[in-house]
Amino acid sequence: MFARSSWIPYAAGLVLSWGVWGAFSSLPTARYGYPDEMVYVLWSLTMLIPAFFALRGVTFDRRSVATRYGLVVGLTGAGGQLLLFQALTIGPAYLIFPVIALSPAITVLMAVVLLRERIPVLAVTGVVLALLAIIAFSISTGDEEASAGPWLLLAIGVTVAWGVQAYYMRKAATLGVNDGTTFGWMTISGLLLVPVALVMMGGLPSGAPWQAPTLALGTQLLNAVGALFLVMALSRGKASLVAPTTNALAPVLTILLSLALFQVLPSGFQTLGIVLALVGSTLMVYTDEKRGEAAATPADRTTGVGAGRA
Predict the structure, then answer these.
(1) pTM > 0.85: yes or no
(2) Secondary structure (H, E, C), the chain
(3) Interval 130-148 mean pLDDT
(4) Is the confidence at residue 144, as pLDDT, over 50?
(5) Residue 142: pLDDT above 60?
(6) Distance set, CA 211 to CA 21, 86, 228 (Å)
(7) Cα separation of 183 and 106, whole Å?
(8) 130 with 277: CB under 8 angstroms?
C-alpha cells in the first residue's frame, strides 16, 4: 500500500505507541503504588532495545561535538522523563500530555534569541495559543485531581526540558551527527540518571506485585519504541509533514483513550486548554520545521532531523 520509503507507516506506529503509552503510563503507580522513580529505571532499560536497532549498521560518531550535543540532548530528555513520571503520579494524563505538547514553543523562542531568527506569523499565533492554554489549565475547577497544582509545574518543567532538547537535537543534526549516535547518547544519558532515581526512591522497592513492573515495562517499551519510530519517520519524510502529524495526533490519542477508558471528562476550561494546546503546538512545530526544511541542504533532508522523546 505504501512505498517502501514512505514515512507514513512509521508515523502511524509513533502515534499508536506514544498515544497508548500516554494513556496507560500512570497505571503502575496509580493502581499498584509502584514508585515513579522505578518506572524511570525500567524506562531507561527499555531504551536499550530500540538503541540496538538504531545503531545497527551505523558508525557511532566519536567526535567531541557529537558527545557534547548528545549529552545535552540525552540529559534534557532523561531529566524530563524523571519530572514526567512524578507529574503522572499526582495529575491526570489527559491534561499533562497536552501541556507537554507545547514544548515547540521553547524551541522557537531559543531559535529567536540564540539564532536571531524571525518568528513567522503562524508561530506567533501558536505561542499565544500556548500561553492561553496554560492559563486555561491553571484555572481551578474544585476537582482535587484535575485542578492546577504541582502536576502543572512539573509538566511545564518537562515542556522546557524537551523544548531545549529539540533545539540542540536540531543543532546536532546540522553538524552532521547521525540519528543513531544521537539516539545512542539518549540511551546512555537515561542510564546515567538511574542512580539519581534510586537515591530519590531510597533504594529498590520491595513487596510490589508482579503486575506493577510488568505493566511498567510494557508501557515504557512503547515510549522507547515510539522514539525510534520518530527517527525512522523523519529519515524518510519531510519534517514539515512528519512533526506536525506526530506531535498533534499522539496527544489526541492519549486524551481519547484516557477519557474513554477511565470515564473522566474535562471541565469547560480544561477542554478549551486541550484544544488550544493541540492547535498551538501544531502551528509552532509546522512553522519551525518548515523553516528548517527551507534552510536545509539536500543532504540534510535525506538524513532527517534526529529526534525521539527520551
Answers:
(1) no
(2) CCCCCCCHHHHHHHHHHHHHHHHHCCHHHHHHCCCHHHHHHHHHHHCHHHHHHHHCCCCCCCCHHHHHHHHHHHHHHHHHHHHHHHHHHHCCHHHHHHHHCCCHHHHHHHHHHHHCCCCCHHHHHHHHHHHHHHHHHHCCCCCCCCCCCHHHHHHHHHHHHHHHHHHHHHHHHHCCCCHHHHHHHHHHHHHHCHHHHHHHHCCCCCCCCCHHHHHHHHHHHHHHHHHHHHHHHHHHCCHHHHHHHHHHHHHHHHHHHHHHHHCCCCCHHHHHHHHHHHHHHHHHHHHHHHHHHHHCCHHHHHHCCCCCCC
(3) 59
(4) no
(5) no
(6) 16, 20, 26
(7) 21
(8) yes
Query: Cell 550535543, residue?
Result: 69
Q: Where are the domains of the chain?
A: 8-303
